[in-house]
């Protein structure tokens, strides 16, 4: 039994049942498949998280975001500026206790280099209902090339616990379809 | 081997006091028995506390109930994680280690006094951390990610607890050495002890990682260190936090084998394969932090892919092997016991009325189907972005650590009570339904949290309505439904948990004392054919197990690709 010593002292030389061998082979091949599929997705897939990131001093990041917002502000949503950068430029989003700042207005089908960082604690960038979830650290500026594929209003919620106001931490990305607007 | 001889010599002073178990014929060192009882009781106490906290958390997250105010919710959630994941599980595991070494090997336990020292350190640590949390300035979740800071004694408690647990592991190793030196068994150690050895080896790695990260963090909290890098913290913290889940897996797989052996006389299909599968855990589980860093900035994809897959899924391979060999050994034993008709008579006629068996088999199935599959999906480099930090994550690990580990430990308790506490279980009828009740609840909370996470609901989050947010957000109605169903399942799980605690405590205090000559039909299976020769099973057809693993494999593949389909519908990012 499994609670007593093996019958034969030299148990490592016992033959293995065919069923076990087949299952080991199946599981091993499936594991290898899953392993190589992650690599393959970097070539065939459109969703791969970039690893481009730089160390940044929080106050320096704050300045960059402020400058960015000042340059492209087009409106205001409940006290938070709505910022509409031209397609293709660098876009900055800041996580802080407890808001995502500013509100971004992007264009469907255009690509943006989105910078993410925090000036205080860790936060969780969670774009809803699309469900894209990225961890945001203070001291690290993470850059993702993002291409919205649908128009509409999207919420950003925070899904890393960041203190008592965590559940009030939200933001927004508005995606406009300028081709549709033009018609 | 000087340390070897040293250990044996150092503990030679004690003359152990043995009794002989009338059911198994094993020699039981009374000192080991006392320590097993103490650790098991402590485990159950912390499960009771932590489980009730889990219920409160789940009821708060049920939008229609919304039980606790925000501050209390986060505080209780911090305490829930620590009490169940650290204290309940690790106390129980220390009991398993003493059982698998001293009892299964007929040996005396090395240095019981040190065992008590470890126990006291663990209790003290657990109490200190709980006090820190309840004082209110350490609401940092049990992961305590910097730069969020807890009070120093929050970390101190966990460190003390880890040191105590390390002592327990040390005693386990020393007992193995003694048993070998004193030839209390012949040949190799039993499979269950081998599994426990796996758990203990990983535990050492884990607890040391914990010390490496928590000691500087405590100093930082005391103002002696200026800065803890949040990314580095996560890397090292999860070397403890996730590798410790491999302790759980090794321990509960050992418990599966143990229950199958004690109830049905099951023996491994082949010793080599089952041991090899445990060995894979040791070789490939140390890279586990990686899948907690998949959504983190600045980490290369190469590193993520190699590590998150534990080197090409070789550890997953270990679990998949046990997924075949455990039901396979049960089927083989049952067929040998005469349940040979058709594909599934062995399973239909299994002792489902015995809570040890029922709990064990439910744990096996749910760990594989719910916890295992979702874990691989969640740990896939790209798919992680779909659910990182959503409530899918707690859904997944309630599938592993609640429906899997906790249920397996509960099932094991139904054997520990008569064998070690030497008492008859009070309320056998209620004991019979307990694993089903808890299992159903555990499956429910796991799957509904996973469902809600797929719809974007955040983990560790008090308000699904975002009432006080300046910029509002509305989740889909499905998300609300899922969180409601999660609340209902939590009530079932809590009822099952309360029942378990009452049965254990009641039996320990009031169960009829089992004396010599006592005939036990419950909860040990009363089949006459149970006793079998040990060693590998060999040469038997297992059609039922083939069907089971085929269903498992197809579900796995299907669910895996469904998630890639979800991913491919997202916005593009690179
Ligand atoms: C009655 C049984 C239980 C219920 C109803 C329950 C429910 C929950 C819920 C609703 C959450 C919160 C999810 C969130 O908001 O993020 C949670 C978190 C958690 N649970 Fe449980 N749970 C139970 C038992 C257990 C057990 C037995 C364990 C471990 C063995 C466990 C481990 C955890 C952990 C580690 C967390 C994460 C805490 C954190 O995010 O810091 N739970 N549980
Ligand atoms: Cu936040
Ligand atoms: Cu937050």
Report a brief summary of the structure.
Chain A has three helices and twelve strands, in the order H-E-H-E-E-E-E-E-E-E-E-E-E-E-H. Chain A has 183 residues and is of the alpha+beta class.
Q: What order do the helices and strands come in, and which of them pair?
A:
The complex is a heterodimer of chains A (183) and B (574).
Chain A lengths: L17 H27 L8 E3 L2 H15 E5 L2 E4 L6 E7 L2 E3 L1 E5 L4 E7 L4 E6 L3 E5 L3 E8 L4 E7 L11 E7 L1 H5 L1
Parallel strand pairs in A: 3-6, 4-7, 6-12
Antiparallel strand pairs in A: 1-10, 2-3, 4-5, 7-10, 8-9, 8-11, 11-12
Chain B lengths: L1 H9 L7 E3 L6 E3 H32 L8 H34 L8 H24 L16 H30 L9 H31 L8 H12 L1 H22 L6 H14 L16 H8 L1 H27 L8 H4 L6 H24 L5 H4 L4 H30 L6 H27 L22 H34 L32 H26 L3 E2 L1
Antiparallel strand pairs in B: 1-2
Helix pairs in contact in B: 1-5, 2-3, 2-4, 2-17, 3-4, 3-5, 3-6, 3-8, 4-5, 5-6, 6-7, 6-8, 6-9, 8-11, 8-13, 8-15, 9-11, 10-11, 11-13, 11-18, 13-15, 13-16, 13-18, 15-16, 15-17, 16-17
The structure holds protoporphyrin IX containing FE and copper (II) ion (CU) (2 copies).
Describe the structure in your own words.
The complex is a heterodimer of chains A (183) and B (574). Chain A is an alpha+beta fold and 183 residues long. Chain A has helices spanning 18-44, 58-72, 178-182; strands spanning 53-55, 73-77, 80-83, 90-96, 99-101, 103-107, 112-118, 123-128, 132-136, 140-147, 152-158, 170-176. Chain A is elongated, with a radius of gyration of 24 Å. Chain B is mostly helical. Helices cover 68% and strands 1% of the residues of chain B. The longest helix of chain B is centred in the first third of the chain and has 34 residues, at 70-103. Chain B starts with a helix and ends with a strand. The model of chain B is unreliable at 525-535 (pLDDT under 50). Classes of the chains: A alpha+beta (183), B mainly alpha (574). Strand 10 of chain A pairs antiparallel with strand 3 of chain B, so a sheet runs across the interface. The structure holds protoporphyrin IX containing FE (HEM) and copper (II) ion (CU) (2 copies). One copper (II) ion binds at residues 95, 98, 123, 158, 160, 162, 166, 169 of chain A. The site of one copper (II) ion has 8 residues of chain A, from loops.
């Amino acid at each position: 039994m499994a609670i007593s010593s093996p019958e034969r002292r030299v148990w490592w030389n016992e033959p293995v049942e065919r069923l076990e061998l087949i299952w080991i082979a199946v599981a091993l091949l499936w594991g290898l498949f899953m392993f190589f599929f992650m690599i393959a997705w970097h070539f065939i897939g459109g969703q791969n998280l970039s690893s481009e990131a730089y160390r940044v001093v929080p106050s320096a990041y704050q300045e960059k975001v402020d400058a960015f917002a000042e340059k492209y502000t087009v409106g205001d949503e409940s006290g938070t500026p709505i910022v509409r950068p031209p397609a293709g430029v660098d876009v900055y989003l800041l996580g802080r206790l407890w808001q995502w700042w500013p509100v971004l207005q992007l264009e469907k089908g255009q690509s943006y280099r989105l910078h993410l960082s925090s000036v205080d604690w860790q936060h969780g960038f969670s774009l809803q209902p699309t469900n894209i979830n990225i961890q945001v650290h203070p001291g690290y500026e993470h850059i993702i090339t993002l291409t919205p594929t649908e128009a509409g209003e999207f919420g950003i919620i925070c899904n890393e616990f960041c203190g008592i106001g965590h559940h009030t931490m939200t933001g927004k990305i508005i995606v406009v379809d300028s081709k549709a607007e033009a018609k | 081997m000087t340390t070897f001889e040293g250990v044996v010599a150092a503990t030679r002073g004690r003359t152990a006091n043995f009794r002989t178990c009338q059911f198994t014929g094993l020699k039981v060192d009374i000192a080991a028995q006392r320590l097993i009882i103490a650790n098991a009781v402590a485990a159950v106490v912390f499960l009771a506390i932590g489980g009730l906290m889990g219920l409160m958390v789940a009821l708060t997250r049920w939008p229609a109930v919304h039980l606790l105010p925000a501050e209390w919710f986060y505080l209780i959630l911090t305490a829930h994680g620590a009490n169940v994941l650290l204290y309940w599980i690790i106390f129980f595991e220390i009991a398993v280690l003493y059982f698998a070494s001293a009892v299964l090997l007929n040996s005396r336990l090395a240095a019981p006094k040190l065992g008590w020292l470890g126990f006291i350190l663990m209790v003290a640590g657990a109490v200190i951390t709980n006090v820190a949390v309840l004082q209110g300035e350490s609401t940092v979740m049990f992961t305590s990610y910097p730069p969020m800071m807890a009070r120093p004694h929050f970390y101190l408690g966990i460190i003390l607890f880890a040191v105590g647990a390390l002592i327990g592991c040390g005693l386990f190793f020393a007992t193995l050495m003694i048993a070998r030196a004193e030839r209390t068994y012949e040949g190799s150690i039993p499979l269950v002890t081998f599994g426990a050895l796996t758990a203990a080896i990983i535990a050492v790695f884990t607890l040391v990682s914990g010390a490496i990260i928590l000691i500087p963090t405590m100093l930082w909290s005391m103002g002696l260190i200026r800065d803890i890098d949040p990314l580095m913290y996560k890397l090292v913290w999860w070397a403890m936090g996730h590798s410790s889940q491999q302790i759980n897996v090794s321990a509960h797989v050992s418990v599966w084998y143990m229950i199958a052996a004690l109830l049905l006389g099951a023996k491994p299909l082949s010793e080599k394969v089952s041991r090899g599968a445990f060995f894979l855990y040791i070789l490939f589980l140390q890279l586990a932090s990686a899948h907690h860093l998949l959504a983190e900035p600045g980490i290369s994809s190469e590193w993520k892919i190699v590590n998150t897959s534990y080197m090409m899924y070789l550890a997953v391979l270990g679990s998949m092997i046990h997924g075949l060999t455990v039901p396979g050994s049960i089927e083989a034993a049952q067929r040998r016991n005469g349940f040979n008709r058709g594909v599934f008579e062995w399973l239909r006629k299994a002792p489902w009325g015995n809570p040890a068996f029922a709990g064990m088999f439910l744990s096996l199935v749910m760990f594989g189907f719910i916890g295992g599959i979702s874990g691989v999906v969640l740990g896939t480099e790209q798919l992680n972005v779909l659910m990182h930090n959503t409530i899918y994550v707690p859904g997944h690990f309630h599938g592993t650590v609640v429906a899997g580990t906790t249920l397996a430990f509960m099932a094991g308790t139904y054997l520990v009570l008569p064998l070690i506490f030497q008492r008859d279980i009070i309320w056998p009828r209620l004991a019979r339904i307990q694993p089903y009740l808890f299992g159903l609840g555990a499956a429910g909370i796991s799957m509904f949290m996973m469902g809600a996470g797929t719809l974007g609901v955040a983990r560790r989050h008090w308000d699904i309505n975002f009432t006080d947010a300046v910029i509002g957000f509305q989740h889909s109605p499905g998300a609300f439904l899922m969180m409601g169903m999660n609340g209902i399942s939590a009530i079932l799980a809590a009822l099952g948990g309360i029942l378990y605690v009452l049965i254990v405590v009641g039996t320990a205090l009031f169960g009829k004392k089992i004396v010599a000559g006592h005939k036990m039909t419950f909860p040990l299976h009363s089949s006459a054919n149970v006793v079998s020769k040990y060693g590998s099973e060999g040469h038997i057809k297992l059609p039922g197990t083939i069907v089971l693993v085929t269903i498992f494999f197809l579900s796995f593949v299907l669910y895996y690709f469904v998630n890639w389909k979800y991913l491919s519908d997202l916005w593009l990012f690179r």
